[in-house]
Amino acid sequence: MIHASLVCRGCSGTLYAVSTICAPAAPLPTWEVDHDHTQASCPLRPLLPLEGEAAHVHELPDADHVLTGPA
Fold first, then answer.
1. Strand partners, 18
2. Distance between CA 27 and CA 70 in Å, rounded?
3. What does the alpha-carbon distance between residue 12 and residue 9 come to, in Å, rounded to a whole number?
4. For 18-48, how does the pLDDT look when each residue is reduced to its tens digit (9 = 90+)?
5. Which of 18, 32, 46, 59 has its CA 20 to 30 A from that of 26?
6. 67: which DSSP letter?
7. Beta carbons within 10 angstroms of residue 40's beta carbon
8. Does pTM top 0.85 for this prediction?
9. How do beta strands 30-35 and 6-7 pair?
10. How are the residues of the chain apportioned to helix, strand and coil, as percentages rounded to the nearest 5?
């Protein structure tokens, strides 16, 4: 699944978010969130990519620091 448009708080750049379910019995999808294009000047670049298991992309560790609020 590809998530709707997300925006980085640090540089206002567009982020992509992809989730996968590794096994049919997996309780939560695995997410990867990063800049669509490398933003060398982004102050939040050290926090990306966001990766991990969560029910929603905004529940990933550091998501509240990197992602703008849900639409």
1. 2, 32
2. 22
3. 6
4. 988 876 776 899 999 999 886 788 999 999 9
5. 46
6. B
7. 8
8. no
9. unpaired
10. 15, 30, 55
**What's the full length of the chain, in residues?**
71
Q: Which of 21, 42, 45 is nearest to 33 (CA)?
A: 45
Predicted confidence band at 1 (pLDDT cuts at 50, 70, 90)? very low
Cross-strand partners of 16: 34
Residue 31, class by beta-carbon neighbours within 10 Å (0-12 exposed, 13-18 middle, 19+ buried)? buried
Band of the pLDDT at 51, cuts 50, 70, 90?
Answer: very high
Token reading at 62? 């550091």
Residue 51, SS3? strand
